[in-house]
Amino acid sequence: METYEDPATWAPEPVRPRWSLALRFVATLLFFPLLCAFWLAVAAVLFVVGLFADAIAAVSEGFARGYMRFMDDTLGGIARLGSWCVTWPELRHEGDVPYYRARVEKVVGNWTRQASAPREPKKARPPVECAIPRRVYRGAGGRYVAEVALAQGWELRPTDVRKEVRLWWSAASRSQDASAADAAADS
């Protein structure tokens, strides 16, 4: 954690009122299926338009990049509409610090297991970066994510703790240095 960061932003989020969460949960039950249907409809329209856009993209590479960016922004924007939704675990465990700590430990442990797995031939490299969303650590705070991650060999990356905590698997840089040294020794 950087010393110039405001320590208050790394603390657990304040507990939200139960009635507010219950109201948002009911709204989520009503709104989320509509949001999913809207997202699927927009994705289908963009796909059909994309079929015709392929003819233009064959001539103009800039058009293809622009269309892909437009698609990503449009679908991502629709997905962000659901950021206010409240899930059942959030409703049940609001203010339950041990629950959120266990959740953080589980998520960071899963990322550590994936990142420390040996590389298999002809398979993608294990992930060396991850982002833990605020929804996971809301009740425990970003500081707890940093403590757990640092204890498991992760490094902090520049991050906006109000949205997510970004991590880098520090062993990846050592393994890349070692593989570069091995390649230099072989030649």
Report on the architecture of this protein.
The chain has 187 residues and is mostly helical. Helix content is 64%, strand content 7%. The chain has 7 helices and 3 strands, in the order ααααβααββα. Strands 1-3-2 form a 3-stranded antiparallel beta sheet. A hairpin with a 7-residue loop joins strand 2 (154-156) and strand 3. The longest helix has 42 residues, at 18-59.
Task: Break the fold down into its secondary structure elements and pairings.
Elements lengths: L17 H42 L1 H20 L7 H6 L3 H20 L12 E5 H4 L4 H10 L2 E3 L7 E6 H17 L1
Antiparallel strand pairs: 1-3, 2-3
Put simply, the count of helices is: 7
Q: How many angstroms separate the termini?
A: 40 Å
Shape: globular
> Which class do the helix and strand fractions yield?
mainly alpha
- As residue ranges, the low-confidence spans are 180-187
Number of strands: 3
Helix content: 55-70%
Main sheet properties: 3 strands, antiparallel
- Strand arrangement in the largest pleated sheet: 1-3-2
Mean pLDDT across all residues, rounded?
83
Q: Could you tell me the strand content as a percent range? A: 5-15%
Radius of gyration over all CA atoms, rounded: 21 Å
Order of helices and strands: HHHHEHHEEH
Notable features of this structure?
187 residues; mainly alpha; three-stranded antiparallel sheet; 7 helices; 7% strand; globular; disordered C terminus
